[in-house]
């Protein structure tokens, strides 16, 4: 049936839902007080960085600059500009006066033309280089790479087509007959060009823009210039200085990346910091907080009059992950710049709450410096205790959860049937580990607002608690704006108290989800204004509860069965936190008469309370009625009796009201959370049915269970109970933006499927809280698309005896409803003992593995594989230094120091991916006592390979030696001193198919003999309650990965359960059990056969002594570097040993030394001839023409002597050929010098041979017209190198294959001389592709040679990229931290 349409000329759009303000009362407040719109308030955005070109982020509502300052606190934009140069003399500038009169050489190799009007009293120019891709956000990298590849491909195809035409024409010119040798070689060269072009296209990696950076001091300030056009011409560049001075920003390349940047200069010009955003997140947050759109006020942020300070904490090198360095620097800058508020939409799960370096600094800036901290609660829900640090776990912070309103559904998400407001499914939930409530307030958690210009759009939909935080922050900025405009006093604590006391309770949400409710602007302002004169209202109180395990907590949290099974007493301590400058009389006079009461209770889940409502807190919590509080703190006792509670979640709060001012709400609160789990003393015989739940959008159902003894995993089955109707399938519709921080990876709007019903998105999350462990390490989370009748089973790790929450929720923006049943079946098959980790020590032969099944009958069939290899490293060097006072001195004046550790490690194959792990430090950020940890990896040429911090990732390394540099920072020198020996582990994943299998045996006897008696080995059926055992034996050493050493650790997993058939659902413990193998020393090499008889040494003792003395003299000669000393000693030895080949080899090597050979080339030829003449080639050929009896000692001795002579011969021939080529100008020239003499072994013969060779060379030059350099094809027909070169090479090829790295220089020089650039390129690419090549040519020279090849071939589309990679791959120093 066709739908009807109508035309409405007065169409409007519901802008209010794009950036919600009505729910918090902000819209009404702004309407009533338009001048209290954030004016006078400065908000620091600690995020990925804010784009100054973002829509609405240029000016405030009263015309002031929107962004006051932009600072990259991460260091990811730092450019090393410590290299200083002076202007080039005109003769060296390479530019006529008409181009520029002031030129310097940049680190890219470009000549930079500077503006002569730029003042620089010192004449010193600091220079640096920065690769653009290191600055690009991840989303921009892929787009730019795609655009550049598209343009490059067009040029490359033109070159390929031209080459193919050339090949066709060449073939036509040779006719149909047989090709000559020259023609065959030329054809091979053209084929090599074609094949290399094809290979280049396959592996092409565009270096991207590479910018020269120039910094100088103009007499009053540091200035910077950036060669964004990459043409070297900076004459028209307007110098940039620190952003706060002129608020100047530029765009790198409007056509290519459209990425805006600012600069700051540090360390007396030695560091130029590019300030760019690491992602669109920070600009979006700033837009929500304070964007100002005069042309469309409905699109304004919450506080359009507020100003912004952008403090970038998202490290571009880590894909925008925050670091300790960035956070500490940002907090320091917030204090220095005297900002009023912080918005921090970042957070991580933590192992402990309320402690750590960053957390302590946050407490300090709030309580000591009066800065208001608003943060996100995190996006890890819907399960309990998923709030993240620092926002959701701190006492000084205001943490926002994310709310979804009908206006947002309509305008932002385009839902077809908007429904009642709900929290976003992934919005994190309290309590914190220590009992604190978790989220402080709720705020709208989504918006369509400003994003960086590099995204090529003005606005974007993002959602998350990252969006709720700036909504709340902007709302509080309105309150603060009103207070500052009227000169009213306030404190962060008073604002926090005002927000919590006036927040609007959301009746559909649990207190652990919503905190105190939706922030309300007007009431919060009224609260502050009416309470400002009240004594002590601005003083924060610290509430501490003596925890069950003796630790100090901020609330009562009973989660485990043993904790909630009995009645327990708790000591609550309350202490006033006076400012350090508070007067003594304030402390003396502080007294408060407090009335204690209980809040209403709240309950959820577990079946026992379903439909019954919460249990009256008075029935399970006992408190005193009154409490007198004074300075230095006091305490009182409460009793929590969980034994009176049914299964499920129970919550209430102890409220302390100042009896003098009850209208101000609670003076302090003590949250109490009790989880009463269902205890399973023994596993049910059938899967446990947790019930059937009717779900709607955003609805959450919780169950709490205690896994029975012996359980190691559980199978959770979700079954959609809706009726199945067979209809024709339809396509999915309305894909919408995923949640920021949570992406289900599915279409979020419901759609119909072939079974006739809507697909509904549900979230399944399970969490156990383990001691000193962040929840993410014991969490399972899955978003599932369920169709009617569909069933899904998930195997999930569990710890027996520890309460597990099973949370089921319909995704908040999945329309419609469904009915879902949940069943749980606990399983258990595990090694017995105190630890489930199995360690097999090399040299022990085997390890005994007892196994038990306590839950169900299980069929075991062990499979053990080791798939990771760990090598321990100790530092090769360590140093400690004081860091830059401009960035790394704390607000209290403490100097921060850096411990720099350097490690060297080797990778056996190119492309190996390694993970550097500092086991002591990794895995903690906010709770870490250290300021930061950060590593950077480099190859042997100092090329940057990758980096990591608290959660290290993979770094791809080339073959050979690599360097790891590890930075640890703190203000305590003694702490850093204690870490100087920090052990780092290099972890490699063994490639698929290369894993090490660990054999299993049923008995020790089988393990010892390596023979299985039964066909099934350790496989068997294990009945419930029974135990068995088997043995894991050491794997064969020859199966170990190449390069493994004694003491290395191989790790993997042991899977015990027998695999099911394809028709049966697989149920196994996820990831199996960890197995570690300590690698033993390698076994002694087995003899390859019976020892060979040795020839009798018939020399006299006198002869042996003389030859030993001779050999020592020659060895000493070979170690000399001074020419005069060498020649003097050589002459003396030559008189004594004129026919000793090693002596002549020593001189040949000396003369042919790479850095000084070019001026010794005639002497190199002569020295090579001396060696060649001493080798009887006819006798050599005759010897190698017959097979030698390996059992004949005399024959084998002769063979050894002949091998040495052959090696001397081929070395001399190769060196002579290169020298002859270079003498004629056909090879690559190098500067150098040296002296030498022609050695006449047989004076008469040598003179005759030398004269003949000289005459022959002159004849060759005459025949070729005195050719110099590289000639074309026609000239090559006459022989560029001459017949002597061809003869030498031909002679060399008789004795050895030239397809070896040691002949690479010869091949390169020979083919370059012939102009066979395709063959030259083939050799160069082979050497560059093998980091472990033995050619002796370093990477820098290989790049230089390849660049010249591209220039000769005219492949201009490759030349610039090659020049850039030469700079990137061979930097002059390590990248900065």
UniProtKB/TrEMBL annotation:
**Do the record's keywords include Aminoacyl-tRNA synthetase?**
no
Domain (Tripeptidyl peptidase II second Ig-like) ranges? 854-1045
Keywords of this protein's UniProt record, alphabetized?
Aminopeptidase, Hydrolase, Protease, Serine protease
Query: Cross-referenced PROSITE patterns, in alphabetical order?
Result: SUBTILASE, SUBTILASE_SER
Q: Which reactions fall under this protein's catalytic activity?
A: Hydrolysis of proteins with broad specificity for peptide bonds, and a preference for a large uncharged residue in P1. Hydrolyzes peptide amides; Release of an N-terminal tripeptide from a polypeptide
Keyword Lipid biosynthesis carried by entry: no
Do you know which Gene3D superfamilies this protein is assigned to? Answer: 1.25.40.710, 2.20.25.690, 2.60.40.3170, Peptidase S8/S53 domain
Provide the residue span(s) of the region labelled Disordered.
1059-1106, 1223-1270
Q: Which residues form the Tripeptidyl-peptidase II first Ig-like domain?
A: 618-675
Q: Which domain of life is it from?
A: Eukaryota
Q: Where is the active site?
A: 47, 281, 466
Q: Where is the Peptidase S8/S53 domain?
A: 38-509
Composition-biased stretches, type Basic and acidic residues, lie in 1095-1106, 1223-1232, 1241-1264
Q: Which GO terms describe its cellular component?
A: cytosol
Any GO BP annotation: proteolysis
Molecular function (Gene Ontology), one example:
tripeptidyl-peptidase activity
Q: Which leading EC class covers this enzyme? A: hydrolase
Tripeptidyl peptidase II C-terminal domain residues are 1096-1162
Q: What is the protein name stated in its UniProt record? A: Tripeptidyl-peptidase 2
